[in-house]
């Protein structure tokens, strides 16, 4: 059973720009942030929907903390995620999905988010200063 809720189906940004904006603006903190589980599940969905004629990417806005209630398996979860991302980017049957992590919040763990970006041949973005979030989102979206 997943410890998160999908608020919007994966689709081209242009098809639902306003709906996505509304969903993002309505977000409030919840009881935890299972970063590795959510990133893996979202990545898996993107692999299933992979289209070689489109840009296949996921944007992750996070403090870099995997707060899923069980710290004992965090390192294994991260290693599994990194392996999964790397495997998808190379080889004959590659389905490269780029993960664009954005560090958000003063104490964000940029090391973890950089590792995720590197594993998917992507770029890490830093918005630890909330005043920069608009500029950072514009920079990320410019990749599309």
Task: Outline the fold blueprint.
Elements: H1 17-25, E1 33-34, H2 35-48, E2 57-62, E3 66-67, H3 74-89, E4 98-104, H4 110-119, E5 125-127, H5 133-141
Parallel strand pairs: 2-4, 4-5
Antiparallel strand pairs: 1-3
Helix pairs in contact: 2-3, 3-4
Keywords:
144 residues; alpha/beta; three-stranded parallel β-sheet; two-stranded antiparallel sheet; 5 strands; globular
Description of the molecule:
The protein is an alpha/beta fold and 144 residues long. The protein contains five helices and five strands, in the order H-E-H-E-E-H-E-H-E-H. It has helices at residues 17-25, 35-48, 74-89, 110-119, 133-141, and strands at residues 33-34, 57-62, 66-67, 98-104, 125-127. Helix 4 links the parallel strand 4 (98-104) and strand 5 (125-127). The protein is globular and about 40 Å long.
Outline of the structure:
With 144 residues, the chain is α/β, with parallel strands linked by helices.
On the 0 to 100 scale, the average pLDDT is 85
Counted by DSSP, the helix tally is: 5
Helix content: 40-55%
What does the overall shape look like?
globular
Backbone CA Rg:
15 Å
Structure classification: alpha/beta
Strand content: 5-15%
Q: H/E order of the elements? A: HEHEEHEHEH
